Amino acid sequence: MTSAAATCSLVIPARNEEAYLPRLLETVQEARSRYVGAGKAVEVIVADNASTDSTAKVAAGYGCRVVRVEKRVIAAVRNGGAAIAEGEVLAFVDADTRIHPETFNAIDRALAGDRVIGGATGVTLERWSLGLAATYLFIMPMVVLTGMDTGVVFCRREDFGELGGYDERRLVAEDAAFLWRLKKLGRERGQKLARVTEAKAIVSTRKFDEHGDWHWFTQLIPRALPALLSASAERRLADKYWYGR
Fold first, then answer.
1. Global pTM?
2. DSSP secondary-structure letter at 204?
3. Which of 77, 146, 167, 244 is disulfide-compatible with 49, CB 3.0–4.6 A?
């Protein structure tokens, strides 16, 4: 999934994702086949975060470029993939996600002209329940109010460089912090973030499968508030939900 003249570079941070990565890459292949703009191409980069399974082998088997990143901070893994990217546009997606077939066309349309600095596709969930629906409804007002979404996040490579990439001091919420800085940069230029919700990604619910469908309200939010005030609390939160496994 590489190209010598890539228009868009898709960066996938991955640690021990041999089970989830193939289903993502199958959807990436379909989206690439629909990227019909003249001379447009996508390179796919898997940033392997010191995996101990076959993540790198799986990625190479799909023709991805693979870069190994040892630092166990998700922001550093995203930056490690971006560092070798050749595309004019950078896009980022988590390894347990599946992307929409029109993803790259939608990003292309959003960035045509100068009105949009970047944005995200938004997501839908791979399964639903009352707890999942309540969580989704809790989050959506903040998404609409800020214009900051999740899914496949994208921007121009030059703007990513101007911002210095993702903040590697952050253990969690580095994606939201990056979009906030991108939004601020765009506001200074008269640009905005775009939500290209016609190409929503399908996000895994494995954290809900592990911690329970109501865990946002019973566990995550109560832990998140102390994490804002204490580095040790942030470390405990990060280890429990992201780095401990």
1. 0.94
2. P
3. 77
